[in-house]
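Q: What residues go here?
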């Protein structure tokens, strides 16, 4: 049974029709269901009070409604182009709900449909951490594995490799490396007050007051192109084989 929803928590799922990296990715079937359905299902099973999909696309809107999400508007074209920012999409949704429905959220959860393995448990844990962190925002991260910063370099004008970190005793074994984390794009949470009077080039989270929610690597898969999609399909197939 789903736990009681946290009042005034709003999930916004951005899903425009255009996509250069993987055309129509939001409606492409992954594990037999549209990619966006994985995120809608996770959000509806979580403690979020309202789940809203922001899209400019009629097919996406129909699919989203079929999976139980609200689609109270079709996103205007000025917020649906390649140069549209996540912040502009989020602010448009907030303004619409506040002006047209008099609905004011206290906490805004931004869930990109390109993270299909982020589930309700992740969302609930992230929400709980945000509510008790005392920070204005929270973002999900995963630990760096194959691309550790200790083994990253730039190339100088002479063609020589310059290490990102200058270390006297550089660890050579993976198990000796310190933990570093990267943003995985799965969960962004901010208090509604953060979005008051923001400049257009701001982030959808507050860098100055930011908590982190750590997710495992498999749950952090982010689908942006065909190779990412193939990886996700293989992971689902492997999971299904292990269960059978």
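A:
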């Amino acid at each position: 049974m789903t736990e009681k929803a946290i009042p005034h928590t709003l999930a916004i799922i951005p899903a425009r029709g255009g996509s250069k990296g993987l055309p129509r990715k939001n409606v492409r079937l992954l594990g037999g269901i549209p990619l966006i359905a994985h995120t809608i299902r996770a959000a509806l099973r979580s403690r979020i009070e309202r789940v809203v999909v922001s899209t400019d696309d009629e097919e996406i809107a129909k699919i989203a409604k079929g999976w139980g999400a609200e689609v109270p508007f079709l996103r205007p074209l000025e917020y649906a182009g390649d140069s549209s920012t996540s912040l502009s999409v989020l602010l448009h949704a907030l303004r619409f709900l506040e002006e047209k429905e008099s609905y004011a959220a206290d906490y805004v959860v931004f869930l990109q449909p390109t993270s299909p393995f982020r589930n309700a448990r992740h969302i609930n844990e992230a929400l709980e951490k945000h509510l008790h962190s005392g920070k204005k925002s929270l973002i999900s991260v995963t630990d760096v594995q194959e691309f550790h910063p200790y083994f990253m370099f730039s190339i100088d004008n002479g063609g020589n490799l310059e290490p990102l970190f200058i270390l006297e005793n550089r660890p050579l074994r993976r198990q000796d490396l310190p933990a570093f984390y990267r943003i995985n794009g799965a969960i962004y949470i901010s208090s509604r007050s953060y979005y008051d009077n923001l400049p257009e080039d701001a982030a959808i989270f507050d860098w100055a007051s930011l908590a982190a929610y750590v997710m495992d690597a498999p749950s952090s898969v982010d689908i942006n192109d065909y190779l990412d999609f193939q990886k996700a399909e293989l992971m689902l197939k492997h999971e299904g084989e292990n269960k059978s």
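A: Context that may help when evaluating the design: The chain has two domains: 6-142+182-243, 145-178. The mean pLDDT is 93.
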